[in-house]
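Q: Give me a protein?
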Amino acid sequence: MSQISAAQVKQLREMTDAPMMDCKKALVECGGDLDKAIEHLRQKGLSKAVKKADRVASEGVIALEVDAQQATMLEINSETDFVAKNDHFKALVSKSLEVAKTQGVESVEALYQAPVEGQTYEAYLHSAIAKIGENIVLRRLAQLKAGGHEALNGYLHANHRVGAIVKIAHTNPAHAHKLKELARQIAMHAAAMKPVVLDYHAFSPEFIAQEKLALVAELEKENEELKRLGKPLKHIPTYVSRVELTPAVLQAQEEAYKQELKEQGKPEKIFDKIIPGKMERFIADNTLLDQRLTLLGQFFVMDDKKTIAQVLEERGAELEDTLSISAYVRFEVGEGIEKKQEDFAAEVAAQIS
C-alpha cells in the first residue's frame, strides 16, 4: 500500500471539503489515486444525501437575476433557515443561478443535466448536500426571455423569500425601455399581493362554483358580526368572477340601471354620464374572486383605484400602444410544502437510527 502524504490529504480536503480523516481513508482505499479518491468521497456523499432526502426542505431562498432580455429565477430549499444563511449554501445558490442563466435552461430537469465544474449539476448538488449536511432541493426554476415587442423585469424582496417576474407585450418596440419600470412595479405588486394566476381565464366552472359558495359564506359570517355592531353590511355578490359577467349579463344590468334612473326621473341625456360609473362599480362588486387570485383583476398597490388591467389600458392609451402581460411567474419559499412535525426526541432518534 502506498504511503499517503499530508500534502495529498490536504489537497483532497481542499478539493472536496470532506473531513480530514475521510480524505485520508479515501486515499488509502484508492491507493493514493486522487481522482478515484474524489469519486469515492462523492459516492460516499451521495449515500449520505440519499439518507437525508426524506427530510422535508421547506426553508431556503429565492434567487433572481434580470438583464436586458432575460430573467432567471429559482427556488432552492433547505431544511432550516439557519443553513439558508450558511456561506456554502449561498455559494450553491449563486452557482445554480449562474449555471441556469448561462446554459439557458428552462426547467429543473434540464439544469440537473447541465455541466458544472467537470460534472453534471445533479452530481454537484449532491456533493453540496453532503458538504452542508442537510437535505437541499432545487424545487423550481423559471427563465423568461423578452422578444422585440416585450418588456421584461422582476422583483426580489429583501428577505429573498419571494420574487416575481413580469413580461409586458406591446406593439411598438421603441416603448420597451419605457415599460421596464412598469413591469418592475407590477412584479413588486405580485410579490406583495400573491396573485395565483394571470387572469380569470384560468378558472374552471367547477372552481368558480366551489369558491363562490365559500366566499358568500365568508361574507355572510362577517355580516353577522357587522350587524351585531350596528355597522354597514357587506354586499353579497351574485357573481364572483369576470368569466361569469357575459355580454348578456352586462347588458341586462345596464338596462336595469336605465330603468332605475327613469324611475328616479333622471333625464336620458345624462344617462351616459351616470351608467358607466355604475357599471364599473357593478363589475368591481361581482369580481371578488378575480381580485383575490388574479394579477390582472387585483387593484394596483400603487393606485388602488385601478386594477392592473386598467393600469395597462391607461398606460397603453398614453403611449398610443396596446399593452398586455404575456408572462407572469411568482415564487415564494416553501409555498405548498407541508412541513413535518416532529418532537425533538423523535428527531434525535431518527438521526441515530
Remarks:
- The first strand starts at residue 59 and ends at 66.
